[in-house]
Design a protein that fits this description.
Structural class of chain B: alpha/beta
Radius of gyration of chain C: 27 Å
Number of domains of chain B: 3
CATH architecture of the largest domain in chain C: 2-Layer Sandwich
Number of strands of chain C: 16
Helix content of chain B: 25-40%
CATH class of the largest domain in chain B: Alpha Beta
Bound molecules: flavin mononucleotide, iron/sulfur cluster, FE2/S2 (inorganic) cluster
CATH class of the largest domain in chain C: Alpha Beta
Strand order of the largest sheet of chain B: 14-18-15-17-16-19
Strand order of the largest sheet of chain C: 2-1-5-3-4
Number of domains of chain C: 4
Number of helices of chain B: 20
Oligomer: heterotrimer
Largest sheet of chain B: 6 strands, mixed, barrel
Chains: A alpha/beta (408), B alpha/beta (529), C alpha+beta (354)
Radius of gyration of chain B: 23 Å
Largest sheet of chain C: 5 strands, mixed
Number of strands of chain B: 19
Distance between the termini of chain C: 56 Å
CATH architecture of the largest domain in chain B: 3-Layer(aba) Sandwich
Chain lengths: 408, 529, 354
């Protein structure tokens, strides 16, 4: 049986998150100290070599992203994406609640790498108590002088799901309507207030202290070679144990659901699992032996995303769930680009019609074409990913749709 | 304008707007200034008794009292000189008369100027520093600066300011009068003035006179003629027997309308040539119907000296005819044949007599226009004058100018300063815009702007009907209570024949040089009715 | 220079160009809705999508940089299908009544629906859009049932007019163009310059002054200079049957050097005095205090005779001419020539100062 492996959550429940002294005793800020003994290019090269990939969903090579920021920019920013708007996801909150200093240290390491003096944490609006915790942590770090000349400020999110998209997040920090920007320019070149800006997820940052301290090779050897390290997963839905765990990325879905989740609740049968949040693909029983790493999940038309694992038992109504998801996206579309603004609305209308048993095969065809175009044509990840639940349920659970049509 | 409109959007680092409500009266120029200030980082100084749109986005806003412009600008120059911000190299190389001017402004310390202008001394300092230290600074002004008994002084003052800081002869600098009507520039360029032929060639210059006599084949008068306001005054005394008015409306636009009407009545024979039956046409003996801009070919010269084409789009209504044709007909009937096939032929004649237009032809301005001076067919036109500080007269001359109070200051009987101007939605005497359906529907009447403090004291609420009176007349209109106007000052527009604001203004105090009446200051009283 | 392949053809384009610009230089047409060369890029309508070989997503060519070596298809089956879907999505929220629409014949939505054969939308699910059309301003109509949310109007208001009277309110499908509190433009900072009308690709924003007077394909456009203030903006008079029926913008640098198409409310909406029934149409002569119509010959002879008599009797300097800051250079020249050469006086002036 596969074991948990704790990098990000190494201090969880072992130290008092309110006390920086505890963190320091546990070896905190040694990574930063080591990082500061390295030159920026060396540090970036080291992170690149570790092959740490972003934990916010897109899995972009972290060191590579940093290397895009011009080294000589007079002003640049480090932004932590702590928007965590994905329903069913709470891993970033767990990480920060259990070990806030680890995030600050990770951001300061990044600050040294990209020569930035100012960091921002964009925190989900529903987490005001975590904002307080973070502010206390920052005060303590300032008091101890561990951050040096790097400073961090917490900004409260506006509540819209799309604000988790990095450029919409930047717009939101700037005080504008939370809408994604067109890329290029990427934030690394022109982000916050048009200055070079590195945006990373909480989990990405909190991996950094250990990587710097133990070296790139150490990290690269853990888990799947293409997506090394661990992943924090949050189990929800019809599993026996709704827990959060940190496992090496070689773990399979079956291991996650059965070994850690304790299998399906009340002895019922498994029907489907959706990984990565609302926009994740639905995965049937036959694909449960897929490892959770980003590329393997891609391979089966699903996504690792944020690491939310939503398990559905045999009693669940796939069409109804998909309709609710469609409603979520209809509600969360920012309205900037055409295919998403209009597409999420019409997709929800069609799903409602199907769900009410009033749809024809033609309606499903229309929905399919619409979804296929949205995947490729939308401006940002929201619209591109929104059709995924529809397309994957149509693929793996078509009989459930068919059953609805027969009501006609 | 010494410089070009486009430079106000791109090249100027600081713009000093004085006596111009640019966003209402030159809206597209206003957009460019706003773009520069709000998006390209230029600084903005606005001096105006009304808190205009531009004033609201200005770095420094100077709500100076109408008529106190010279004092204000002298104050700014005092600061620039005493703080060592003057461009001494430029002054030494390109100007004369500096010492005299400097000696005069020495007494105009901000503290001295503050009570005259109503502007805090510190703001005058700020404005002076901003203008002097921003790199390329431009000055824009309009009728708010010129329509005073000291109009010429006011203009010379801002020229002093520009020379003092070397803000001349580079893109984004200069002194830019924003001309009110579409072809004021052209009317002046073409010699529609009593003292000059085309291109400002003096009628009193013998060589010039000879050139024109040769070209036109007649002998010409050699002493300066009368300016418009002088004509009206002379008419009053019965000394003008015939007046021929082409597309003007003095019965709305001139000061003290009762006086104008009296004068016109005394003239034996008045001809009015216009597109509408104007207030002035009513006083005429013969009215001749003319074509409007859409019905003829020709050229206009805009405020940045750009000569552009006007093209005929439709036929004139009824028997209306093009203005030049009518004048040529009269000339011919008076025994001096004037025959042209088309406007281009006239333009060709203009070129031969007008050095600054010599290089311009219809063909060359088919696309885009050209800015004079343009001496030859090869000359690309002149976006800005006085390049590298080279003035046409050799050295730029400073003028030492003392502040003179407006002719009619408030007193017990008329305690307020009335100032007049325009609305975005109307144009001049309203001849055209009052007959443009949408504009007239949107703004059908004049309003009197009154400061809330003032309104309170007078017991006036927004939209109340009030009367406004001066020594010359009385009008009734709706009050608009607004804090965009300074206390002690009231404002209305002169577009509306129902409430002709120039019934109130005075023709008594003329600028001694330009003979511009003091529209911008009349002592007035407001009462609730 | 960048070298890329578009539709199998090698194309060179300067560094920094977008794929759209590269296509335009190569003469390859790309449909666009939100793109406007004078406005900040939005990249939001997704009409200009192209396929780049090896990339999973379609690229919006108006914002995608042309990169060395990329292989671009602009009308692949996938792209055509995507554009159709996009047009059908727009159609589903659009109130088509082209037969009475002011924009008929000059409408991008209409053109592209025609080009891509979009007759009916496959996505007419749910409630049709039904925004009230009731802005009382006298200048232009706002019919958001014809809006395609390209935000060109918002960007023009912000970046050309620098007013920001309008913005996008609400989110998702319910997003719409609106003033700050969704009120009338008359209660907003709007200055009615109509820059928004100028850039709107559909019939959502149209002039009320021109309504019903002529369709875009019936009018001739005559380039001329505005007759109001001294800025000297270039505008196009739209002419149908020898009558001015509207004003539009020439948006080129050369054609419209001062304003590049931007106008103010007077220039854009204040033209119909030209057709006013109050225009003078015949000469008038005053007799016993009353005006009567006269022929040109009679009137001109009278003027010539009286001026001649007065000149003889009282001398040239008893006469004066007021010329005009509103007539052409040529006319001003003739007026002063007439004053000086014919009347024999320098008493000529105009209201430059008034
Ligand atoms: C609609 C949408 C929502 C997103 N929400 C989040 C989020 O809540 N948290 C997050 O870290 N990344 C989110 N992302 C991904 C970010 O855009 C970005 O890729 C990420 O912050 C980069 O960090 P990483 O490289 O460390 O993963 C979202 C993306 C999209 C398109
Ligand atoms: S895909 Fe959706 S959320 Fe993203 S920009 Fe387009 S409308 Fe906005
Ligand atoms: S906006 Fe275009 S498509 Fe819509 S009704 Fe008008 S002409 Fe037709
Ligand atoms: S008319 Fe002008 S100011 Fe009004 S909304 Fe349109 S662009 Fe903005
Ligand atoms: S009103 Fe016109 S310009 Fe504005 S978003 Fe709608 S379609 Fe585009
Ligand atoms: S034209 Fe490119 S996205 Fe609209």
């Amino acid at each position: 049986m596969i074991e948990e492996k704790r990098i990000v959550l190494r201090n969880a429940d072992l130290i008092d998150p309110e006390k920086i002294e505890d963190y320091l005793l546990a070896g905190g800020y040694q990574g930063l100290e080591k990082a500061r003994s390295m030159s920026s290019p060396d540090l970036i090269a080291e992170i690149k070599k570790s092959n740490l990939r972003g934990r916010g969903g897109a899995a972009f090579n972290c060191g590579l992203k940093w290397s895009f920021a011009p080294a000589d920019a007079p002003v640049s920013y480090v932004v932590c994406n702590f928007d965590e708007g994905e329903p069913g996801t709470y891993k970033d909150r767990i990480i920060v609640q259990k070990d806030p200093q680890s995030l600050l240290e990770g951001m300061a390491i990044c600050g040294h790498a990209v020569n930035s003096k100012q960091g921002y944490i964009y925190c989900r609006g529903e987490y005001p108590y975590v904002v307080d915790l973070l502010n206390r942590a920052i005060d303590q770090a300032r008091g101890k002088g561990v951050l040096g000349d790097f400073d961090i400020e917490v900004r409260m999110g506006g509540g819209a799901y799309v604000c988790g998209e990095e450029t919409a997040l930047i717009e939101s920090i700037e005080g504008h309507r939370g809408e994604p920007r067109i890329k290029p320019p990427f934030p690394g070149v022109a982000g916050l207030w048009a200055q070079p800006t590195v945006v990373n997820n909480v989990e990405t940052f909190t991996n950094l202290p250990s990587i710097v301290l133990n070296g790139a090779e150490w990290f690269a050897a853990i888990g799947a070679p293409n997506y090394p390290g661990t992943k924090v997963l949050t189990l929800t839905g019809d599993v026996t144990n709704r827990v959060s765990i940190e496992v090496p990325t070689t773990a399979t879905l079956r291991e996650v659901i059965y070994d850690f989740g304790g299998g399906i609740k009340e002895g019922k049968k498994f029907k489907a699992v959706q990984v990565g949040g609302t926009s994740g693909g639905f995965i049937p029983e036959s694909l449960l032996d897929t490892p959770i790493d980003f590329d393997s999940m891609r391979g089966i038309g699903a996504t690792l995303g944020t690491g939310a694992v939503f398990v559905m038992d045999e009693t669940r109504d796939i069409v109804d769930i998909t309709t609710r998801i469609a409603k979520f996206f209809e509600h969360e579309s920012c309205g900037k680009c055409n295919p998403c603004r209009e597409g999420t609305f019409r997709a929800y209308e069609i799903m409602k019609k199907i769900n009410q048993g009033q749809a024809s095969v033609q309606d499903i065809e229309n929905l399919t074409i619409l979804s296929q175009v949205m995947e490729k044509a939308c401006l940002c990840g929201l619209g591109q990913a929104a059709p995924s639940p529809i397309l994957t349920t149509l693929k793996h659970f078509y009989p459930e749709y068919q059953a609805r049509l027969q009501l006609n | 304008m010494t410089n070009s409109i486009g430079e106000l959007e791109k090249d100027a680092n600081c713009i000093f707007v004085i006596g111009s409500n640019t966003t209402e009266n030159h809206p597209v120029i206003g957009m460019k200034i706003k773009k520069n200030v709000l998006q390209n980082g230029a600084r903005l100084i606005v001096a105006d008794p009304r808190r205009t749109d531009l004033a609201k986005i200005a770095d420094v806003y100077l709500p100076h009292l109408p008529g106190s412009d010279v004092a204000l600008v002298n104050g700014m120059m005092n600061v620039i000189i005493s703080e060592g911000l003057a461009d001494l190299d430029f002054i030494a190389q390109h100007t004369e008369g500096f010492e005299e001017m400097a000696a005069l402004v020495a007494k105009y310390t901000p503290e001295f100027v503050a009570p005259i202008t109503g502007v805090p001394a510190e703001d005058i300092r700020k404005a002076a520093r901003l203008y002097a230290e921003s790199g390329n600074s431009a000055i824009c002004y309009a009728m708010g600066l010129t329509q005073h008994r000291t109009g010429t002084d006011n203009v010379k003052s801002v020229c002093n300011l520009a020379m003092l800081t070397g803000n001349i002869g580079r893109p984004g600098t200069g002194v830019d009068p924003l001309r009110g009507q579409n072809n004021v520039q052209g009317a002046c360029d073409m010699g529609g003035l009593p003292n000059v032929f085309t291109a400002y060639q003096a009628v009193t210059n013998d060589a010039t006179q000879e050139k024109f006599e040769q070209a036109w084949g007649v002998s010409l008068p050699s002493q300066n003629g009368l300016v418009l306001t002088e004509v009206i005054n002379k008419a009053h005394h019965g000394d003008i027997k015939a007046l021929y008015v082409v597309g003007e409306n003095p019965m709305m636009s001139d000061p003290d309308l009762v006086h104008v009407e009296d004068a016109l009545e005394k003239i034996d024979f008045v001809v009015v040539q216009d597109i509408f039956f104007t207030e002035t046409a009513k006083c005429a003996d013969v009215v001749l119907p003319s074509a409007c801009f859409a019905e003829k070919d020709g050229t206009f010269s805009n405020t940045e000296r750009r000569v552009q084409r006007v093209r005929k789009a439709v036929s004139a209504p009824g028997e209306a005819r093009v203005d030049w044709e009518i004048l040529c007909e009269v000339a011919t009937r008076m025994g001096y044949p004037m025959n042209y096939d088309n406007s281009e032929q006239i333009f060709e004649e203009i070129r031969t007599l007008t050095p600054s237009y010599a290089g311009i032809s219809y063909q060359r301005i088919e696309n885009g226009g050209l800015q004079w001076p343009c001496a030859t067919e090869e000359h690309p036109g002149t976006p800005y004058l006085h390049k590298d500080g080279n003035f046409s007269r050799g050295l730029g001359a400073f003028t030492a100018i003392d502040y003179i109070a407006p002719g009619e200051l408030p007193d017990e009987n008329y305690p307020l300063r009335l100032t007049t101007g325009r609305s975005l939605f109307h144009y001049h005497t309203g001849t055209m815009t009052r007959r443009a359906s949408a504009l007239n529907e949107h703004v059908p009447t004049a309003e009197l702007e009154v400061n809330p403090e003032q309104a309170n004291a007078l017991g006036i609420a927004n939209d109340d009907m009030v009367s406004v009176s001066t020594r010359r007349g009385r009008l009734e209109m709706k009050a608009k209570v607004t804090d965009t106007i300074a206390p002690g000052v009231i404002f209305t527009t002169f577009h509306f024949t129902e409430t002709p604001a120039n019934l109130l203004t005075s023709s008594e105090f003329l600028d001694p040089t330009a003979k511009i009446p003091e529209y911008k200051v009349s002592a007035a009283i407001v009462e609730k009715i | 220079m960048i070298t890329l392949t578009i539709n199998g053809k090698e194309v060179q384009t300067p560094k920094g160009s977008t794929i759209l610009e590269a296509c335009q230089q190569a003469g390859i047409p790309i449909p666009t809705l939100c793109y406007d060369p004078d406005l900040r890029l939005a990249g939001s309508c997704r009409m200009c999508l192209v396929e780049i070989k090896g990339r999973p997503l379609y690229a919006a060519s108006c914002v995608a940089p042309a990169e060395n070596g990329i292989v671009v298809e602009t009308e692949s089956p996938g792209i055509v299908a995507a554009r159709k879907v996009i047009l059908e999505l727009l159609s589903a929220r659009h109130n088509f009544n082209c037969q009475v629409c002011e924009k008929n014949g000059n409408c991008k939505l209409q053109d592209y629906c025609y080009q891509y054969g979009v007759k009916e939308s496959r996505f007419n699910y749910g409630e049709p859009t039904n925004y009230p059309i009731n802005d009382p301003n006298p200048f232009f109509e706002r019919d958001y049932n014809k809006c395609i949310m390209c935000t060109r109007c918002v960007r023009a208001c912000e970046d050309i007019s620098i007013v920001r009277a309008i913005s996008v309110e609400n989110r998702g499908h319910h997003a719409k163009i609106s003033t700050a509190f969704d009120g009338n433009l008359t209660d907003s900072p709007c200055v009615f310059c109509g820059q928004c009308v100028m850039v709107c690709p559909t019939g959502a924003l149209t002039s009320k002054v021109s309504a019903g007077l002529g369709r875009s394909y019936e009018v001739d456009k005559v380039l001329t200079t505005c007759s109001y203030c001294g800025t000297g903006c270039t505008l196009e008079l739209n002419v149908k049957d020898d009558r001015v029926v509207g004003v539009t913008s020439n948006r080129t640098d050369t054609g419209s050097p001062v304003n590049k198409g931007a106008l103010c409310v007077k220039g854009r909406f204040g033209w119909d005095f030209i057709n006013s029934p109050e225009r003078l149409t015949t000469p008038l002569i005053k007799e016993n205090g009353e005006f009567r119509k006269a022929s040109w010959d009679e009137a001109l002879d009278l003027v010539a005779k009286r001026l001649g008599e007065i000149k003889t009797e009282f001398g040239a300097d008893s006469m004066a001419v007021f010329t005009s800051a509103r007539v052409t250079n040529e006319e001003n020249y003739i007026a002063q020539k007439f004053t000086r050469a014919v009347l024999g006086t320098n008493n000529v002036d105009h209201c430059a100062r008034l």
